[in-house]
Amino acid sequence: MPDREISRAGLDVRLADGRTDLLDSIDQPPLARIRDRAAARRRRRRAAGSGGAALLCVAVAATLLLQPWTADGTAPSPPPVADAPPGGPVYTAAGITINGLTGSAVTGIPGTISDVEFVDPDHGYLLAGCPAGAPCPVSLARTGDGGLTWQYSELPWAAVGAELTGFPDGNLMITSGADTYVSLDQGRNWQPVGAGSGAGRVPATAGDLLRAGPGGRCGLAVEVWRPALPRAGAAATDPDLDVCWVAPAATADGAWWVGGTRDGNAAVAVTRDRGTHWRTVELPGTGVPAGPVEVTSLGSQAYATVLDADRRVLALFHSGDGGQSFSRTRSGGPAAPQGLSGEPVPLLDGRLLVAGTDRYFYVSADRGATFSRAEGSLPVVGRLTRTGAGYVAYDLFGSGWAAYSADGATWRKLQIN
């Protein structure tokens, strides 16, 4: 019996040793690579945007409508979740990301994209046309999923230099020379309207826009535009400065900025009740040539940029108190970028993003005092503009592509060209 117990104990030892050797011989899964793949998979799903989520919701809803319960009264097993469409290329530098085209089809549209308006992060509209030497019908496209899919139609008139205006409620206006057309059903039907004269005082309402009236470089009136009538009239009161620029849209907190000169000095003014009352803010310092001043803001951070006729930067001012006061952070000179193409974009992390007239992205981390070129894999860019809900980058890659961003840091290339 003792010998048998010893033999059994030896067998147990040999079995334990064999099990250990077997486990050691099995390759362990590459956990680091699995984590990397999981992270990439999450990025692809995020890049798929709201379109994939919307399709999934429709599919699930349809399943529940067709077979809400099994025969025994229990809830059925949910259908398997489909993978999101594969993500496209990602272009990035200096914390700025442009998500490229996904696996979805790209909509081809006649002409070249000239105007893009987003009234919220999902609903956007764009205008495309042809150059004067080869005119073609104006085309209007619309999206309801942030630019993943588009529907477009050619409008029943040919126009060169047409401009698209989007109103907060989704109504649209196209102006081309003396002709103006309005759509009150998101671009499905259009009707010609009179342009209005801009005469008389018109209290602006929530659905109206403020625009610069016609004229030269400065000395412009601030006008009220309405969905059914551009140039409905002048704002209720005038700002106390010589207006050279009017913001394309109100800020998120309802502030509408204008820029110009006052007593020969650069100055800005802001209204928070659509032109009924204005507050004028002079920009400090001497030696700033009088000229157009453009303002961009995000929360308490605001920037005022003084530009010449070629959009070279003459001076840049920063405010940390929502525009109550400004301090000068940059003077004009040879430092890049020498000129701005479109509007500066304040970022949530406190930096400032601009497109230079040399077609490169630049970022400032010191309130506009200095800028560094964002190299990496970011493409060249034509200009940056602000819409009612975010920003649009035009002529990416020098090939007519456009991208939309709600915050200026993460962009989605629109699947239309």
UniProtKB/TrEMBL annotation:
Transmembrane segments: 47-69
UniProt keyword Transmembrane present: yes
Keyword list, A-Z: Membrane, Transmembrane, Transmembrane helix
Stretches the record annotates as Disordered: 322-343
Protein name: Exo-alpha-sialidase
SUPFAM superfamilies cross-referenced by the UniProt entry: Oligoxyloglucan reducing end-specific cellobiohydrolase (SSF110296)
Keyword rRNA processing: no
